Amino acid sequence: MLKAGAAGAALAGVPLGQSAQAVGTGRIYISHERSHEIVVLDGTSYQVVKRIKTSRRPRGMVFNSPHTLLYVACGDEDVVDIIDVAKEKVVDAIPTGPSPEVLTISPDEKTMFIANEEDSSMWIISIEDKVLLHEVPSGAEPEGVLVVPDGKIVYLTSEVADMVHKVDVARGIILDNVVVGTRPRRMRITPDQKELWITCELSGEVYIVDVASYKVTDVINFLPPGFRQVDVTPVGLEMTADGKKVWVTLGRANHVALVDVPTRKIEQYILVGSRPWGITFTSDEKRALVANCLSDDLSIVDISSRRVQKSVPTGRIPYTPLVNDRIGWSPVGN
Q1: Cα 162 from Cα 326, distance rounded (Å)
Q2: Which of 101, 79, 96, 105 has the alpha carbon at shortest distance from 132?
Q3: DSSP state of 43
Q4: Interval 172-229: pLDDT, tens
Q5: Is the pTM for the entire model greater than 0.70?
Q6: 3-state SS track over 77-119
Q7: Average pLDDT, whole number, for the chain?
Q8: What is the number of other CB atoms lying within 10 angstroms of the CB of residue 45?
Q9: Which residues on adjacent β-strands are paired with residue 155?
């Protein structure tokens, strides 16, 4: 594993790919763990238009703000692949710690945060200089990474420790921890930055943490009709731009749950494919895109009717869907 003292030399030899502008195509990019590729769909016809070969086991992804580059965490080769969006091919790679799973970038796009699943650490890397700035020890199997809009704090889930770490970016240290449900995975923060929502896979729950006190304030339990509690394994979640609704993928329960944020009430369960995992919205919030990792397809859900419009076969073990239909920074990678 690369350590901070050697990281500058190790990363400096990797040139950063440059990209022409490629914004607003509406194309959908889906990482696939087993077929080691990013499958690209046309955003209107949902036909496969490109298969981008990557390093092995691509999982978490995030765009840069102009959507000219797509960063992809590739767990079996310990790298972040960099895809030129206009060319739709890998042009670069940045070495990481063992088994990178989820990543995101700072608001100024100078820094990358990478959860290294098998190393119990988060790496903070300077993107321009390609230098490891901090290696932050964490609970075992870190996964979800979320940075706040001012770039000063990063939240990091630990699947085995059942907690969320609050990390000071400048110093690269953990400031606080909060214990949540079993096997926390992904996070979203409300637009007012007052609440952190965390999926907890093995306890079948979403935990809500008050950011100011850093204490749990609410827990939402899921149980679609006809399923046992053990089948409910939430992982992915997405929040509407106004912060009023959250959609949660329920894993082995084969549903997505729609939650009203102010009341915490589950409004509906929507049947999708087998073991839904990653989820994202189109920028107009008219469609939810759900990657189903055991049926190897993508469910296209109409948000107004709350019905699946179409299921599209993609590749082996789809993990993260992203849409190239907007520009701007996102606080979280999927």
Answers
A1: 34
A2: 96
A3: T
A4: 999 999 999 999 999 999 999 999 999 999 999 999 999 999 999 999 999 999 999 9
A5: yes
A6: CCEEEEEECCCCEEEEEEECCCCEEEEEECCCCCEEEEEECCC
A7: 93
A8: 9
A9: 146, 166
C-alpha 312: how far from chain center? 21
Both tokens assigned to 332: 């979280």
Residue found by looking up tokens 């895809």 in the block: 83
Asked if 329 contacts 311 with a C-beta cutoff of 8 angstroms, the reply is no
Count other Cβ atoms within 10 Å, centred on residue 332.
21
State the burial class of residue 284 (Cβ atoms within 10 Å of its Cβ: 0-12, 13-18, 19+): exposed
> DSSP letter at 64?
-
- 178-213 burial, b if ≥16 CB within 10 A, otherwise e? bebbebbbbbbbbeeeebbbbbbbbbbbbbbbebee
Of 291, 272, 286, nearest in space to 325 by CA: 286
